[in-house]
Amino acid sequence: MNNPFKKLLPAQSSVIEKNVTGLGTFGGVFTPSILTILGVIMYLRFGWVVGNVGLLGTFLIVTLSVSITFLTALSISSIATDKRVRTGGAYYMISRSLGIEAGGAIGIPLYLAQALSIALYTVGFAESVVNVFPNLNFKLVGLLTTLGITILALISAKTAIRAQYFIMVGIGLSLLSLLFGRPLEETDIEMWGTVDSNSEGFWVVFAVFFPAVTGIMAGVNMSGDLKDPAKSIPKGTLAAVGVGYLIYMTLPVILATRADASTLIEDPMIMRKIAYWGDAIIIGVWGATLSSALGSILGAPRVLQALARDRVLPQKLDWLGRGSGQEDAPRNGTIFTLGLALVAVYFGNLNIIAPILTMFFLTTYGVLNASAGIESLLKSPSFRPEFKVHWIFSILGTLGCMAVMFLINATATAVAFVFVGVIFFWLQNRELKTTWGGVRRGLWLAVIRKGLLNLGQEKEIKNWRPNPIVLSGAPTRRWHLIDLASAITHNRGILTVATVLQGKDVTGTQRKRMEYNIHEFLLKRGMQGLVRVISSKDPFSGSEELVKSYGLGPLVPNTVILGDSEEDSVREKYCGMITKFHSMERNVIIVRANNNPVFGNRKKIDVWWGGLKGNGGLMMIISYLLKNSRTWHDTEITIKMVVGNEKAAGETRKNMEGILKNLRTGAELEVIVSNGRSFDEILHRSSQKADLILLGMAMPNDNFRTYYENLQQRIHNLPTTLLVLAAEEISFSEVLMQQETFMSD
């Protein structure tokens, strides 16, 4: 059996991360970020953007896009200055904030987005090359380029970063050449674009443009290779966003004043024609596309490596988490990513790939903002970022991402959410164990605190529901007790499974191990519930103390479920415990299991009824809840009453039919005329074929032990019987009138 107390962090299970490249802010964050921002979309699609939506429309798209990335950059900066950001970038941040399931649900789409980005940039490069050299094969150029940059990435991350410095010089030269260029034709500046059959709508254009500003992830994805991520990520990312915004707000003016809308739309290489030195644009395009592709081929495998090390991926893919050399380079992941990128290059084009990337990146950005916003809102003591951002800005970023996704394409957004949701629940079902925790616990604690403080001490009859505590002992031997409790809660009440370990030498570790084992047992049976294990010299006094002290504020168990006692030697203590439970105003349900299986076929429940007050009302509620549970849904409930003669039987039927009609529990009525027979004789003859019998118990008094022993004799040889004792100071008849509401809320 696995040791439940072996705290093993998945990311630590195979490789301890090293940081030997020591990249700084400029080389490790700003350079890859700005080069990815000033990439293929700027050179090959910015003219198309201006031509479709005009100068003001472009300003709006740029400002809206950069606003989202700016808010996300603030959130990233906040998270990065709170905790050490290791390999995996955005995935690492989300998983350590929202938990492994949320991290994996975003990390996998993020990896796919990064892998597709490689294809986006190499397709853009191939498009520009074929524009200059028409005789070349477009797909072949794209495939060979993808292979080439992958080889460079495999050599060394530091070598790849150094190569980007030269590319930056080329991009700077191309922008200067564009600035000092000349008009291609006379043009009237289009403020809101053309209105003809060739123009695209605002949100279609936005979807194509948005990947141009997603370069903020390039630096974050290299987090494991940075000397000081907490310092470099905020400075480098925000600087890249600012510089990129200035350039993107300047270029539309140049384009709109040098060519008309139709030319901007139709010619992807329009910048080359209007630049002072046209070939400088070619250098810039090639440099931008290659550097962006290089940034993605460096980042995507590192996200994949982190996913594999955290065991988010299937076990067969653990080899993707291995690192090579002193730099711990993800060479296996790089080769795997190469395969995906080659497929995307072969089948894709810019206008198809870009919108897909937009959805993936917006999803990632939205969750990143949510992570920072929730952490800041909860004010957790463990969240102490040096770069402080008010939670409103992060939540605004989340809402902005979601709104833009729906405005672009509601169907695609729904598909993206479903995709992320499927991954989340898949990971949740795998029950991955981590030691870093997540913000979800803090979020739940905040909700619980607010709820408990607002719950109040007064009981509301309308909202009554069973919150059972099951004294199960070893749950494997008394599973029927937990099964019964689950059936009457319907996953709406709070179920607690409790055990008292007998002995004075029981250690805290032993109690925790027992709690863990019971919790795992419940999960394997598909059961939700809390677990409580205590130790005591005497199991009866221990149970009394547990029931008395267990709970939080007004939220305490209102019903105790336990098994019957057959041992004469402990009968006095057992009956004393029942008496104490009643004095605590806890309802008691004693299960005397006679059938095998315990609940038979779950088709017939007999309720021996003496009126709505007290036990009668509680028994009606229990039978009703059982009938509406998943495991008892086909059962037939019969309310049985004994009267002395036929006249009394007629009156009883008339009164009871009206009551049952108002109660709407679906129960049938059977009125039995005694004709001189004893109740015990009628009980045994009438309920011999039932699967479950419900009988009420008298209130405990000084002779309760004698009463209980007689009751045990009465139900001997009967099918499984529930002995019900109502103790709460509420009218269960009024609760019954609200059961329809209870079942539908």
Automatic annotation (TrEMBL):
The keyword Transcription regulation does not apply. Residues 479-595, 602-666 form the SLC12A transporter C-terminal domain. It comes from the Bacteria. The keyword DNA damage does not apply. The chain crosses the membrane at residues 20-44, 56-81, 102-124, 136-156, 163-181, 201-224, 236-255, 275-300, 395-427. It holds the Pfam family AA_permease. InterPro entries: AA-permease/SLC12A_dom, SLC12_C, SLC12A_fam. It is a multi-pass membrane protein. Residues 29-424 form the Amino acid permease/ SLC12A domain. It is found in: Membrane. Keywords: Membrane, Transmembrane, Transmembrane helix. PANTHER family: GH08340P, SOLUTE CARRIER FAMILY 12, CATION COTRANSPORTERS. This is Na-K-Cl cotransporter.
